[in-house]
Amino acid sequence: MLCSKTRYFCASFASGSFLRNFSCTSAKPQANSENGRSLVGRDFISLKHFRADDIKQFLWTAKDLKTRMKDNGEIFQPLKGKTAALIFQKRSTRTRMSTELGMAKLGGHAAFMGPEDVHLGASQESFCSKLFSLFNIFARVLSGMADIVLARVYGQDFLDELANEASIPVISGLSDLLHPLQILADFMTLQEHFGYLRGLKIAWIGDGNNILHSLMYGCAKLGVDLNVATPAGYEPDPNITEDALKIAGKTGANFLMGSDPVQAVYRADAIVTDTWVSMGQEEEKKKRIKDFAGYQINRKMLKEAGGNWVFLHCLPRKQEEVTDDIFYSEESLVWQEAENRMWTVMAVMLHLLQPYTPINPMPKFVRG
Length: 368
Description:
Order of helices and strands: HHEHEHHHEHEHEHEHEHEHEHH
Distance between the termini: 62 Å
Number of helices: 14
Strand content: 5-15%
CATH superfamily of the largest domain: Aspartate/ornithine carbamoyltransferase
Low-confidence stretches: 1-27, 29-36
Structural class: alpha/beta
Strand order of the largest sheet: 7-6-5-8-9
Helix content: 40-55%
Number of strands: 9
CATH topology of the largest domain: Rossmann fold
CATH architecture of the largest domain: 3-Layer(aba) Sandwich
């Protein structure tokens, strides 16, 4: 029989009213405070919960690991004997491969569980019907078996409560609201290409989705300028927009929010977009493609972009989102961006499990 908290949570979840403030007694100390210095034991759920220095540390370590292991051919296995449990309600080749291969490179082992393995269906209704078992089995039992959990799900509330119940670190592999790992990969890619982050102007063209939400938090935290153009009705979450703008006001990041893609790409250094039809939105495909008319990334749109602009897309890509001559061009960094998904999740797992100081110099974050 479900407890009253669980019944209330499920009813609100199924009706579309997410309980942002729902909480239970945590099985571990809540380390998501920005006042904490150590990253060990933290949950990686949102960039909002991390200081600029924390984000820089993740990026520094990702570059350090890439240099040591890929460029220098070093075998480095600090996580030997450690295990990661991967819970996937939403499928993803890149997230699964980057995490499994990354954990293996660090000497650990990852165990993958899809919806059929954890008895968690793809629908929200199925999710709610199994919520009680999920909290008890996944959060509590896995806390005794694994050292870390990465979950890729539909509802952000599930990640929040999983982190609240588990006594081991929980990493977001994506939710419908946020995708913080993708932004670390994007920042690492831009830092490798330009040599810095603060001083760049990033333009987001497309849907006001989970990737944009995390990009807004990341840019605000690091003081990176961001221009956003989304069609009417597809704007980012107003609460996240308000949060990000408050943070940007403190760090000096300039945000331009609107619907004109040509204005957004003006003098931009990086042009970023994503799929217009995400998983779970297949029934909206025809309407979305119609609503996003004029938002395809093409040469004409980018006439007034910065002189050395680059293009990013988290994949998979559809041709209506960006033309072939840009997607496969020298300006496109999508393959480097995809590879960096592995190095950044490796950095996150390493820091959440044990202290680590990179041996290579810290990369620059500010131009000049």
